[in-house]
Specification:
This protein has 226 residues and is mostly beta strands. The chain is built from 3 helices and 13 strands.
Length: 226
């Protein structure tokens, strides 16, 4: 693909000070470590800088999960190969939350998902940053996760609060997918702007050691129609 003929579509939410991504987890604190005003004291006249300071949990905004998030001996962000994050052949499967919040293997069958990043479009992102976002969200069932695993997908993304049903205390979808080293991206947005297939997906986190989850700038690279 040529960058000159492609469109990049941002699939990430904006992270700002005080944003609540997951109820019960603290919101990020984003502030100056060095303000522009204070920096003037350190540099010549007319030269100023800002250095930011961020305090947050790693489950903030649109983020990626790798095996270490679920398994003590699983690969962390630094150990997952870069090719697993970038330019993945992808497709979108639409399952509107107005139709069902329980996404089973039936909704996933009939698509050529082998060796692809599968992005589940539910439309739940329209509720982002509202009280409605945190409860009764769309999720995959354990059998759906097993189907994706058996189909050898490389990544699964969803525009919902969690890929698992959070009404219970088990997390079978995380267990099945991360146990098979299939990456998960949660809190996606703008999936309605994508074609059903024929594009690539990227979601790259920093190269942290002993970290299993981190915000990403997720995006799709979509060829322009001639």
């Amino acid at each position: 693909m040529s960058a000159k003929t492609n469109t990049l579509i941002d699939l990430s939410h904006t992270i700002e000070d005080g944003l609540v991504t997951y109820k019960g987890l603290p919101a990020p604190i984003i502030c100056d470590y060095l303000s522009r005003e204070d920096s003037k004291k350190r540099y010549s006249e007319g030269t100023e800088f800002q250095i930011g300071k961020i305090e947050m949990v790693t489950n903030t905004g649109t983020y990626i999960d790798c095996p270490f998030h679920r398994f003590e001996n699983g690969k962390d962000l630094s150990e997952v190969a870069l090719k697993r994050y970038v330019d993945l052949e992808a497709l979108v499967i639409s399952v509107p939350h107005t139709k069902t919040i329980e996404i089973t293997e039936k909704e996933l069958k009939g698509y050529p998902i082998q060796n692809k990043a599968v992005l589940i479009h539910t439309g739940w992102d329209a509720k982002w940053n509202t009280e409605d976002y945190y409860e009764n969200n769309p999720f995959l069932t354990e059998k759906a996760a097993q189907y994706l695993k058996d189909s050898n997908v490389v990544l699964v993304g969803i525009d919902s609060h969690n890929i698992d049903d959070t009404r219970g205390k088990t997390r079978p979808v995380h267990t099945v997918l991360l146990g098979a080293e299939i990456l998960i991206v949660e809190h996606l947005c703008n999936l309605q702007l994508l074609p059903k297939s024929g594009f690539t997906f990227s979601a790259v986190p920093p190269k942290f050691k002993k970290v299993g989850t981190f915000p990403v700038r997720a995006y799709a690279n979509v060829p322009k129609k001639e």
